[in-house]
Amino acid sequence: MSWLEIHITAFSQQVAMLSDELMLLGAHVVTLKDAGDQPIYEPSDSNPRIWNETILVGLFDREQDMLPILDFLGNQQADGLLTHFEVKEVADEDWVRRSLDSFKPSCFGKRLWICPSWLTPPDPSAINIVLDPGLAFGTGTHPTTALCLEWLDEHIQDEQYVIDYGCGSGILGLAALKLGAKQVLAVDNDPQALEATQNNAKQNAVFSPELNVAFPGNVGDQKADLVIANILAKPLIEMASILGNLVRPQGKIVLSGILSDQIEAIIDAYQPFFLMQPPVFKEEWVRLEGSRK
């Protein structure tokens, strides 16, 4: 089997927009690499890991209709928003090898590392979660996941009961357990996400009752010390009362998957239930935190 790759050379300011648009146009995954030779040391919120000139690589099915994608990219190039793009055919095994080569261990906060299974953790004494790229969203590379992992590293408390709503790969629930939480309920409406979460839990020697999975309709009326939801603004707004009722009095809610221009709408939806804290930014993405009234 073969795939189509689109290689786009663009300036750092356009990377987020182009990456999101490629996903909307049907890309299975978008990866980034340095277009020049620009080392980046000590990345931080003010210095994200984006090179001045970046190559975006979007992976598409061989049967994908490329005309809308090429039209979009041609318009972006005409507007000066990217400098070059090309389409390449790549064999299945070549893409897998490249994908694995691009996935490296990452540190979040002071003590939490996410590491692929084929590499040795850089710091064996740290809290290491083994996680390989797969079908479900969540390996720590996206700013929204990173925002949530950093919050967990700093704030999770021993013996807490946590609900990870929209769990994807289960990365946030696993991080909460490894950082000291007593029990996690991972919730998602996608069966593949629940399966991925269970597989990742086994890979990290986490078993029931430490971590359980459920579809949204099977959560019940239990109350959590912490609900963490890294999804998107529209479902977050629609589910404000549902998520609010899952948090015990004085418990916490952490929300991400939010763009900077969506902050006000999210806060308005959650203020009836929570005392909301100021937003925390990473690139154009936002994390919000609230304490249950």
Structural features, described:
The protein is α/β, with parallel strands linked by helices and 293 residues long. The chain has two domains: 2-102, Alpha-Beta Plaits (2-Layer Sandwich); 138-292, Vaccinia Virus protein VP39 (Rossmann fold). It is built from nine helices and 15 strands.
Shape: globular
* Rg result: 20 Å
Tally of strands: 15
Q: Can you tell me the CATH superfamily of the largest domain?
A: Vaccinia Virus protein VP39
Uncertain ranges: 38-49
Share of residues in strands = 25-35%
What's the SSE blueprint?
Blueprint: E1 2-11, H1 15-24, E2 29-34, E3 53-61, H2 67-78, E4 84-91, H3 92-102, E5 106-108, E6 112-115, E7 127-130, H4 143-155, E8 161-165, H5 171-178, E9 183-187, H6 191-203, E10 211-214, E11 224-230, H7 233-238, H8 240-244, E12 247-259, H9 263-270, E13 274-276, E14 280-282, E15 285-292
Helix pairs in contact: 4-5
Q: Could you list some keywords that capture this structure?
A:
293 residues; 29% helix; 31% strand; globular; 2 domains; four-stranded antiparallel sheet; single chain; Alpha-Beta Plaits; Rossmann fold
Task: Provide a compact summary of the structure.
The protein has helices at residues 15-24, 67-78, 92-102, 143-155, 171-178, 191-203, 233-238, 240-244, 263-270, and strands spanning 2-11, 29-34, 53-61, 84-91, 106-108, 112-115, 127-130, 161-165, 183-187, 211-214, 224-230, 247-259, 274-276, 280-282, 285-292. It is α/β, with parallel strands linked by helices.
